Amino acid sequence: MSPRQANPKLRADLVEAAARLLTEEGPQALTTRRLASAVGSSTTAVYTRFGSMDDLVRAMVHEGFARLDRRMNEVAPSDDPVADIAAMGLAYHRNAIEHRHLYGVMFGGVGFGGFSLTEEDRQHGRYTLEPVTRAVVAAMAAGRFRDGDARLVAHHMWIALHGLVTLELGGFLVPPYDAERCFASQVHGLLVGAGDDPARARRSLERLGVLLGAG
After folding, report:
1. CATH number of the domain that 37 lies in?
2. Which phi and psi (to 5°) does residue 214 adopt?
3. In terms of domains, do 60 and 25 share one?
4. 215 part of a folded domain
5. Which of 134, 142, 133 is nearest to 204 (CA)?
6. Burial (CB count within 10 angstroms: exposed 0-12, middle 13-18, buried 19+), residue 115
7. Total structural domains in the chain?
8. What DSSP assignment string belongs to the chain?
9. Domain range enclosing 176
10. In a domain, 212, yes or no
11. In this structure, are 68 and 157 located in the same domain?
């Protein structure tokens, strides 16, 4: 077996390179030849690990959500569930910035051309909402949030942060309304909208080093 074939990182390298090609150059660039060249491998290695280009696109989506899930679960529950929710928001944002190419693929932000995802693939990543939902339940139990549908609250937060991240990655957020400033005020608004006291929500954010402007 050659050193190339024995490379334990080859599958991950192929996924990263494929996401980069797809997001930066479009689906026409995602060919086995271009992909193999990008990682210094052979076209056979691509088919050996993924079977088809549809399987490769699917692997990108699943890998993107797996990385997001690991990052979200790094936030350990504390005595302040509202701060935990904000910490998960930070984790979501940082994961998207660090893995921007995979992020563009996992949420369908780029066209797949002739490649296709099933409905099951598109719903695959919903498990990443579970840590947020658990924290929302804890915030409700602690009297910080109004009682209600915790999963719906988690969806509201997901939708809002996804919008912010998408605009940031697209280069639309610039000073003075850059991502950092918008993130702080947006998360504070989400926490207060879910029922938290504005001052307590501010203190929970400050606990994480997230500072709001005046007002």
Report:
1. 1.10.10
2. -65, 150
3. no
4. no
5. 142
6. middle
7. 2
8. --HHHH-TTHHHHHHHHHHHHHHHH-GGG--HHHHHHHHT--HHHHHHHHSSHHHHHHHHHHHHHHHHHHHHHTS---S-HHHHHHHHHHHHHHHHHHTHHHHHHHTT-S--TT----HHHHHGGGGGGHHHHHHHHHHHHTTSS-SS-HHHHHHHHHHHHHHHHHHHHTT---TTS-HHHHHHHHHHHHHHHTT--HHHHHHHHHHTT------
9. 53-207
10. no
11. yes
Q: Based on the domain organization, do 65 and 129 belong to the same domain?
A: yes
Render each residue's pLDDT in the chain as its tens digit; 215 residues. Answer: 444 445 778 999 999 999 999 989 988 899 999 999 999 999 999 989 998 888 898 899 999 999 999 999 999 999 999 999 999 999 999 999 999 999 988 887 666 666 777 788 878 899 999 999 999 999 999 999 999 999 999 999 999 999 999 999 999 999 999 999 999 999 999 999 999 999 999 999 999 999 887 54
Nearest Cα neighbor of 96 from 154, 167, 26 is 167
Q: Is 176 found in the same domain as 129?
A: yes
In a domain, 126, yes or no: yes
CA 62/CA 143 separation, integer angstroms: 36
Dist. CA 34–CA 119, nearest whole Å: 28
